[in-house]
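Worked example 3. Consider a protein that binds 4'-deoxy-4'-aminopyridoxal-5'-phosphate.
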Amino acid sequence: MYDINEIRKEFPILQRQVYGKPLIYLDNAATTQKPLCVIESITEAYANVNANVHRGVHFLSQKATEQYEEARETVRRFINARHSHEVIFTRGTTESINLVASSFGETFLAEGDEVIISTMEHHSNIVPWQLLAERKGIKLRVIPLTVDARLDKEAYAALFNENTRLVSITHTSNVLGVTNPVEEFISIAHSHGVPVLIDGAQSVPHKKVDVQALDADFLVFSGHKIYGPTGIGVLYGKESYLNRMKPYQGGGEMIQTVRFEKTTFNELPYKFEAGTPDYVGAIAFARALDFVSAIGIEQIAAHEQQLTRYALERMAEIPDMRIFGKPDGSAISFLIGNIHPADLGTLLDRLGIAIRTGHHCAQPLIDHFSIPGTVRASFAMYNTIEEVDAFIAGINRVVKMFG
Ligand code: PMP
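Given these inputs, the predicted complex is written out as structure tokens:
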């Protein structure tokens, strides 16, 4: 049974008020709130097991290392990777994509090669490739959208040629809340011998993502969007690619031997984890994944989809409501008449309702619609039908103010 009251009790911040009103937090696509077990696991790690990992023979260092490596195993299980050494801890989605752009780029890409991205990418899946394009003289090819704002599969299939080296696309759009059928996109790429990176920042927190079932070559996501701490995230990569890729950063831990004449590199996953990793972040992140697993990702998905369907139904009652794309996940982007998104956001905020406005770090997608930005409401496991009602009532109040 999905006991929403029990779940809400785990999140201290949900008890607080803003402007004397109960907080209604609908900005979960930006970051999620943290359950007490995650918050406490940070204190617990510093209070009881803090020591630098991997380098110490002493008791605490071994304990910290054990917990850090258990966290890696928890991530492996969560996404069903074949090996835990295919899980690299990074600072988050952005760093994971930069790592692949840099290391895959250095190893496999040369002038004239092409990387395919899409119109609905977050800036973090555009700009690293543009920087690489400048450095290496590679070309970016962009999958266009269909009239109903989905990735155009036929146009995508036509982008492949003998220079295509990598596809890097989002699983779920952070703006439209649309989930792309990435299985099909991966299998098209593989039929050309081209690997695929999936940006799972908005899918992993909201649905079961199995890297082996998808046959994804790389999957990236952030801890903070799945109830974990900030500053920790994941790069999953198939061993066959990671083993051949050049290191990303140099430093401690990523080496085997260092001589001034020649340095040799450590094995996976350490080759890509230079310096002291955020082991406390990783431990707390694993706690968040365990928390999600205990409730059940399918149950969370069903709850969030119910909220999304209900919100869409209620929003359809509001005159001049314009919804972008066909949301099937947990985010809805919209505009009402010619009310500026920032005005709507500010007025809802005064009612205690936290939503996001603007370009959502996806300017090319916003430009595609020729609009200044959108208002986005996004749900998580702890949101309720009553909160959706309050959100709709808030919108109606703002619409009235604007006459
Ligand atoms: N990709 C998508 C689809 C996102 O929604 C986000 C965060 N808004 C990112 C990438 C970047 O994630 P982070 O800021 O955690 O690195």
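Take a moment to read the result before moving on. The pocket of 4'-deoxy-4'-aminopyridoxal-5'-phosphate is lined by residues 29, 92-94, 122, 124-125, 170, 174, 199, 201-202, 222, 361 (CB under 6 Å). The chain has 14 helices and 17 strands.
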